Amino acid sequence: MKNYNFKAMKNPISHNEEDRLRELYGLKILDTNSEQEFDDVVELASSICDVPISLISLLEINRQWFKAKKGVSINETPRKESFCDFTISAEEDFFEIEDTLKDQRFSNHPLVKSDPHLRYYAGTPLITSKGYKVGTLCVADIKPNHLNDQQIFTLKVLSQQVSKMIELKLSNRKLENQNHHLRHENEMQQLMLSIIAHDVRNPIGAIKGVMDFITANDVPEVDKQKLTSMFSDQLDTTLDLLNNLVDWSKMQINKAEVIIEKINLHEITDALLKQFKLNAKFKNNQLLNLVEEELCLRTDNNMFRFILRNLIANAIKFTQNGTITLYAHGEKDKIVFTVSDTGTGMPKEKVGNIFNKAQAKSTPGTNHEKGSGLGLILTKGFIDCLNGTVEIESEEGKGTTIFLYFPR
């Protein structure tokens, strides 16, 4: 394009320009991909008005951007070179320049003096439901022209449809986002219900198991008192666990965020093992905490606790008269945490599919304990959320070791 000395009149600015721009940006239409329904409108406008050029133009602070175009190759122009500014500033809802060379505002315009050599322009504003003129539907020609009443009427109707289409697109996006949020909230609620049910089932089951054992056997009174005295502690820790899970559930439903903080792994492990004290005693299992006392990890506290609770519960479930050992140490760029048991172990084919959702199935424990099959699936999901990895070593009759690797 040649460099012409363009000295046209300064483009008019709408009296409500700030609010108009706010409305335009709120529509979230700028710089979106081409869409067939908008392309169809410019094709129709060009055909009805019998002109080679038709545009859906949106005017922001410093540029004019074309949502749809026919007859031009460019996607935008500087706003100071926009004909459409005059359309949105006009009192009437139609603006026409029959011959640009005879209009001092445009006779020396770059788009008149050089390609595409515009000689004619007509536009109708795109008016939102709030009354803001955010752009235009316009047509142009390389020769002088004039639209008849029917063409003008049709152009106005088309511009109204474009405005409705833009607002409908925004409404649909908002509705889609709301539906996505509702689906996510529902999924989170289902997930949290599963977590609560899974985590609370074990300690409550332990209490019931001990009570059934006392009822069915001739247990000495001294032993009865020792066992029943443990119920209160177990119920306290279970209630505390339930409260924490409910609070965390609300947090996850509202935010669904991973909250990173520094935690002491030995302290966390100690607290968790206390929750399983009764479970372990009922099955004559020993719980060992060999985690380094000063070892810390930056992670999501609640997610990490959930992972360990499930792994400890699983180890106890498949171990009788044995030992469950928790150990952790730091390496150069990661923390290695292991949960080992001397229980029943697993065949190789089961180890390979243990985190497979399609094959999620609960296996009865050594005391025929039942489960939902969700525990390890949820556990793997949280390990992934924390950018961790997991490995399993197991041998039938000799026990299982779970290796957890987390970045430091």
What order do the SSEs take from the amino end to the carboxyl end, as H and E?
A: HHEEEHEHEEHHEHHEEHEEHHEE
Counting DSSP H or I runs of 4 or more residues, the number of helices is 11
Shape: rod-shaped
- Estimated helix fraction: 40-55%
Mean pLDDT equals 85
CATH topology of the largest domain: Heat Shock Protein 90
Total separate domains: 2
Percentage beta strand? 15-25%
Structural class: alpha+beta
CATH superfamily of the largest domain: Histidine kinase-like ATPase, C-terminal domain
Total E-strand runs: 13
Report the biggest beta sheet as strand number plus sense, adding barrel if it closes: 6 strands, antiparallel
**The CATH top-level class label of the largest domain:** Alpha Beta
- Give the strand line-up of the largest sheet: 3-2-1-6-5-4
Question: Would you write up a description of this structure?
Answer:
The protein is of the alpha+beta class. The protein folds into 2 domains: 17-177, GAF domain (Beta-Lactamase, 2-Layer Sandwich); 179-407, 2-Layer Sandwich (Heat Shock Protein 90), CATH 3.30.565.10. Helices cover 46% and strands 20% of the residues. The protein has 11 helices and 13 strands. A 6-stranded antiparallel β-sheet has the order 3-2-1-6-5-4. It has a 5-stranded mixed β-sheet with strand order 8-10-11-13-12. A hairpin with a 5-residue loop joins strand 2 and strand 3. The longest helix has 68 residues, at 149-216. The radius of gyration is 36 Å and the shape is rod-shaped. It starts with 16 loop residues before the first helix and ends with a strand.
